[in-house]
Amino acid sequence: MTRFSELGLNEDLLTSISYLGFEEATPIQEEAIPLIMEGNDIIACAQTGTGKTGAFLLPIIHRLMSEERDGISTLIVVPTRELAIQIDQQIEGMSYGTGISSIAIYGGGKGVDWQQEKEVLKHGSDIVVATPGKLISHLNLGYVDFSHVKYLILDEADRMLDIGFHEDMVKIISFLPKERQSLMFSATMPSKIKSFAKEILSNPKEISIAISKPAEGIMQIAYLTYDQQKLGLIQSLITGKKELSSIIIFSSTKKQVGEIVRALKRKDINAHGISSDLEQSDRENVIKKFRAQKIRVLVATDVISRGIDIANINLVINYNVPKDAEDYVHRIGRTARADTTGIAITFINEDDMYSFQKIEKLIEKEIMKLHPPAEIGKGPDWKVSKGRSRGRGNQRTFHKKRRKGGNRRNSNRRK
Predict the structure, then answer these.
(1) By CB count within 10 A, which of 12, 19, 117, 201 is most buried?
(2) E strand or H helix at 104
């Protein structure tokens, strides 16, 4: 492993990060930091939890410390307010004592927040971390001064494209100087990301680290369940297990989040929900309590599948199989962070088997499939139609068998 002291970073910066316990660089940091310090545009692909935030913050802070700063020097654009807040907090920790200032700009705040953001955008902060929608609201009013921006960073770029921020990002970039250093970080590298990179990057260096593979420390298990069995199965899995003190349950819908929370509270399980429906202050409060382990179970939509860094999460439960195989990696990546261990459990109903098989193909691993405990009842048999893998129950070896015409109902559903 390469130590940060070997990467040529400013001595005061090294002192600051040493207080945070940072001594050795992760692979993405080892590759990206020297390239960024040299002034290259880069496009970097690395999954969540690999240290990519430090990979761009450290060299940017290093460069800012040696430059004359006049107004906003760095713009970091991210898909969610949770990620904006987290990056702003990391900047504060890494740059402690350096005099570098930063602000997070995101939706869901109050009028006083808007006024504070307006003043900073008019008069300058060294680093601005922003979500696209809120930043454009300020840009449209004409007082934002981006004329001194030297560094643009797009973090979780694939996620921003997935949720429809392409035009917003193009508009934001139109306000920036053409002469700048641009960095794009993404957890995946689909063709749309490569096309977008060509639009905004200049002769970028490419970095790709451990794409779409869950951490080795995660024990992955799946249960074959009917929907009506899922709540009972959650209770069976966590009741009486004091060692599972920090649990995240991911649900695909906001409505389901509420239903799960209410069901768990009826069983005296300390659970709280978080989704985009919550006011920002309430979301921050829930996450703060969960981080302090005052909340045992956090039930959430994919709003926190990226951009939330909480240590010692013991268990992640996928109440539904995510339709996007990459989202599975991000969800279960909330546990087993920083070389720890954790458990990831996914509930698979009859309609989710094909989606789960795509996940197994992506991560190049066959996940053990179990039926619920006897008191809950047997779940559906594993069966993927149209010539794909077939099996029964909790068998771990699937046998391929061609069927002429496949399963008509499933075949039509996928069209």
Answers:
(1) 117
(2) strand 102-105
Q: Which residues, 6 or more positions from 371, have their beta carbon under 8 angstroms from its beta carbon?
A: 223, 224, 378, 379, 393, 394
Could you tell me the domains of the chain? 4-209 (3.40.50.300), 218-413 (3.40.50.300)
Q: What is the pLDDT of residue 308?
A: 65
**Cβ-based neighbour number of residue 186 at 10 Å:** 26
Quote the longest CA-to-CA distance of the chain.
70
Give the model confidence (pLDDT) of 50-101 as tens digits.
788 999 999 999 999 999 888 999 999 999 888 899 899 999 999 988 889 9
In whole angstroms, give the CA distance from residue 368 to residue 397. 9
pLDDT at 325 over 90: no
- Pick from 49, 345, 87, 32: nearest CA to 212: 49
In the predicted model, what is the mean pLDDT of residues 405-409?
Answer: 40
Phi, psi of 206 (to 5 degrees): -105, 135
Distance from C-alpha of 41 to C-alpha of 182, rounded to nearest angstrom: 5
| Cα dihedral sign, 372-290-286-296 | positive
The phi-psi region of residue 370 (left if phi > 0; otherwise alpha if psi is between -120 and 50; otherwise beta) is: beta
- Judge whether 360 and 367 are in contact, CB under 8 Å: yes
**What are the pLDDT digits (tens) for 205-223?**
999 885 556 778 899 999 9
pTM of this prediction exceeds 0.70? no
Q: Distance between CA 198 and CA 124 in Å, rounded?
A: 29
pLDDT for residue 271: 96
Q: Is the pLDDT of residue 396 over 50?
A: no
Mean pLDDT throughout 318-326? 86
Please name the residue ranges forming H helices in 66-182.
Answer: 81-94, 111-123, 132-139, 157-162, 166-174
CB 177 within 8 A of CB 146: yes
Cα–Cα dist 379/350, whole Å:
9
